[in-house]
Specification:
With about 300 residues, this protein is an alpha/beta fold. The protein is built from nine helices and ten strands. Strands 3-2-1-4-5 form a five-stranded mixed beta sheet. A hairpin with a 3-residue loop joins strand 6 and strand 7. It is globular. The relative contact order is 0.16.
Length: about 300
Amino acid sequence: MSQKIVGIDIGGTQIKYGCLDETGTIFSKGVIDTPKKGEEILDALVTIFEGYNQDHDVKAVGISAPGIINNEGYLITGGAIYDFYDFDLRAEMMRRVGVEVFVENDANCALYAEKWIGIAKKCSNFILVVIGTGVGGAIMIHDKLYRGAHFSSGEFGFMFAKNPKDTDARRSSWSLVGSVQSGIVDAYKTLKNDGEVVSGLEVYNRALQGDSIAKQVMDDLYTTCAQQIYNLIVSFDPELVVISGAISGNKEFIQKVNQKVNDMKNTHQDMGNIVFPEIVASQYLNDSGIIGAAYNAIKQ
């Protein structure tokens, strides 16, 4: 049997997983709902490993997880999985499965996927922005993941997208102003003020059909994201900005954000000679966590 890598992407609602070779080819993949309790999640991860290990010689397991994670696979925070706060996920999983296990932040794994075999494979310096229920990201500088002094680089969702409120500054953050949930769903519900709850995709479709409130909501989202990405570009001077997450498959979003970023640059009199990167959609959408987690295991 040839050796394989198991890649596992732990999300707040689903766990995606797959069996890969060392070129990044996925031979088999699946998805399950994320259990509520930490112990149940660990049991599910072991079951995934055992299922693949019966038919393959599994060399290692790579895990993509939410939260702030140090370079030893220790979860300082665990996103929406509160049982994983202050938890040594790597050590616990190695004890349970008996092979090498490597754990990395989910946005960092998405970055690795695009660098390894994706749209950024020729780039040495690029930024990945994840826009979904919230906003996150990751940074690569000179072909290396930039972690920061406390392993929390790329937390772009904490950036302020408007003047912070004295009582709750969080409400002014990018995650709470320019994400799919807050920037589209919640914003439309507030402006419509009729009690109707619709999805982000439905708001987008209504904007295309001429709904004035939906059009305003979508334009506000494009502007917010463009402003934040503009700030990232002038801060890091990347070769490429890759958009990942739920909205990355929307071609109009990519087009509108590129247009607004370029408009901001072109109307700034000091920016004439500055080269800006293209903003592109990620190549690997739902599979990026699996691929990036596997790569993190392979490169060790």
